[in-house]
Design brief:
The protein is an alpha+beta fold and 315 residues long. It contains eight helices and 19 strands. The N and C termini lie far apart (48 Å).
Length: 315
């Protein structure tokens, strides 16, 4: 795929004659990734639009897929793993009767079969794919084997043995059935391959299937309705774009929180354990006062031990 066209130059927020200077930008942008570009291309475009230095995403979407792609900037990248590991919610479109090399529309057709199943046949097999199940990761994936992603082997025509992995399908609902087109609503654990789910359902139905479209509707506590399109971002100035960023602690809002006074906050930021009578055990959000997020600490036996802290101006 060709890289996206470079965005046209815009004046920098510093008003320095059009030369862009990168300032530290911290926060989370909920992006609605469009179909047709990679997650990294979307990230780089948003990074440019925000004039940010450091950026990362919280789980890729394939080029043919669209939907919620949370992007982390600056200090927020330190906490991206917590959203990467969160549950996801997808709307998946399957075509029955056709299998492809990749399990999606980007692959070559392997086989075409007659479809003799109806809505009730599909409903009857879905419980087999609900709860904890095993999936064999697809060859066309970014999983590593001896330091190389599997898709590199696949492109070279090399098949690598992949052990099955356990994932959890928390809910699987038939939304539409206009055979051979089927639409499913999938709520699942991190690491679930929806392409593989489509292929496995097709195999059980006896006609085969592949994924033709995929939309990520939610990740963790974030929903697609909160996300911003790239085209909308382009219509704003850089200050308006920055105003769309969520604070870094939104990525760990599911964890308990404690507040520290100025002395203990400074000690924690210097890497020292501090005494605190929190009733929580394990990872805890830590704040200096009610609002200044410091990062995460490990609460254990009356102590808070630094775990992952953001860069602060504490001495």
């Amino acid at each position: 795929m060709n890289p996206p066209a470079s965005p046209s130059p815009q004046p920098s927020p510093g008003g320095n004659g059009g030369k862009r200077t990168r300032e530290p930008i911290d926060g989370v942008l909920l992006l609605n990734k469009p179909v047709g570009i990679t997650s990294n291309a979307a990230l780089q475009k948003a990074k440019w639009l925000l004039n940010a230095k450091k950026a990362g995403h919280t789980g890729t979407l394939d080029p043919f897929a669209d939907g919620l792609l949370p992007l982390c900037f600056g200090e927020a990248t330190k906490f991206s793993a917590y959203l990467l590991e969160a549950d996801k919610h997808y709307r998946a479109v399957l075509q029955l009767g056709v299998t492809t090399t990749t399990g999606d529309p980007e692959g070559e057709v392997l086989d075409t079969r007659e479809v003799k199943v109806d809505r009730e046949d599909i409903r009857a097999v879905l419980p087999r794919f609900t709860g904890e199940i095993e999936q064999i990761p697809p060859m066309h994936s970014a999983l590593k084997h001896q330091g190389r992603p599997l898709y590199e082997y696949a492109r070279a025509g090399i098949e690598i043995d992949r052990p099955p992995r356990k994932v959890t399908i928390r809910a699987l609902e038939l939304v539409e059935c206009d055979s051979p087109r089927v639409v499913l609503d999938v709520q699942c654990s991190a690491g679930t391959y929806i392409r593989t789910l489509a292929q496995d359902i097709g195999a059980v139905l006896g006609c085969g299937a592949h994924l033709t479209a995929l939309t990520r509707c939610a990740a963790g506590g974030f929903r697609l309705e909160q996300a911003h399109a790239l085209a909308d971002l382009e219509a704003l100035d850089v200050f308006q774009r920055h105003a769309l960023l969520l604070p870094a602690d939104c990525l760990v809002a599911h964890l308990p929180a404690v507040q520290l006074d100025a002395v203990d906050a400074a000690a924690l930021c210097q890497g020292r354990a501090v005494a605190h009578s929190t009733e929580h055990q394990g990872l805890t959000r830590v704040y200096a006062g009610p609002h200044a997020f410091l990062g995460l600490a490990e609460a254990n036996a009356g102590l808070l031990l630094p775990h992952r802290l953001i860069a602060t101006q504490q001495a």
